[in-house]
Amino acid sequence: MKKDEAVKIIVECAKEYSKNLINLNLLFVFEGAEESNHIETIFLPQNFMHLTGVAPRDRLSSSVAFYNACVGGKLTPAFFDMNHDGTTRIKLSILFQVMNIHKVARMVGDFNGNNLKLNTEKILGNVHACMGFVCAQQHQGLFVPNTALREDIRDVSEKPTRKILAILRKPKDAKMYSECTYIAKGISLEELLSVGSLKLRVDI
Predict the structure, then answer these.
(1) N- to C-terminal Cα separation, the chain
(2) Quick one: which of 116, 141, 165, 174 has the most CB atoms within 10 Å?
(3) Among residues of the chain, what percentage have pLDDT more than 70?
(4) pTM above the 0.90 mark?
């Protein structure tokens, strides 16, 4: 993959990130015990660069500057380097898909290492692509995205992976979740959210 092609993919995906995820919380509700069956995430401008697999050059002062260059249409091949091990190409091949994680995630699990040189904790996705998350104490313990993987989630997660039952979305400053972006077949959202701590967080 040439860098000009990478620029096109990154810029297009930055637009999707801006449209679908930026400054939003996603709440993933999955199979499990009532009080421990959900993960809450936040997507910030500085998180986007880590999903692309590129390394910014000195002219970009931060990951926020990288994101701003992308959405501002100013990203050029001179602004970044691609990893020589091929990981950038692999990440970019599925990046557009995971920009829709609020619709396409079907399973969640704990990262199992899988001989990958990654520092991530939770994996969310499907059998084609997934996103890794780490807990960020500076953001009230919410999980932030730090990698994208072209992997079957079942191969990179501790067993058993758990089925996602619903995905909810809200602006990060809103108190209550009021939008459902995914609900599994045969699941009643009202019943799912009527027990445990979630009933105090959702207004749908």
Answers:
(1) 44
(2) 165
(3) 96
(4) yes
- Distance separating alpha carbons of residues 12 and 39, to the nearest angstrom: 27
Query: Please, which residues have CB within 8 angstroms of residue 60's CB and are 6 or more apart in sequence?
Result: 66, 69, 79, 80
In angstroms, what CA-CA distances link 24 with 13, 46, 157, 172? 16, 13, 25, 5
Torsion of CA 131, 132, 137, 141, to 10 degrees: 60
The three-class DSSP label of residue 44 is coil
CA–CA dist 81, 139 (Å, integer): 29
The angle subtended at Cα 134 by Cα 128 and Cα 139, nearest 5°, is 130
The Cα–Cα gap between 204 and 21 comes to 19
pLDDT digits (tens, 9 = 90+) for 88-105: 999 999 999 999 999 999
Largest separation between any pair of C-alpha atoms in the chain: 52
Q: Which two tokens stand for residue 27?
A: 């709440």
- R_g (Cα) of the chain, nearest Å: 17
What pLDDT does residue 33 have?
Answer: 61
The string of pLDDT tens digits covering residues 48-65 is 999 999 988 876 778 999
CA atoms of 87 and 75, how far apart (whole Å): 20
Look at residue 115 in the predicted model and tell me its pLDDT. Answer: 67
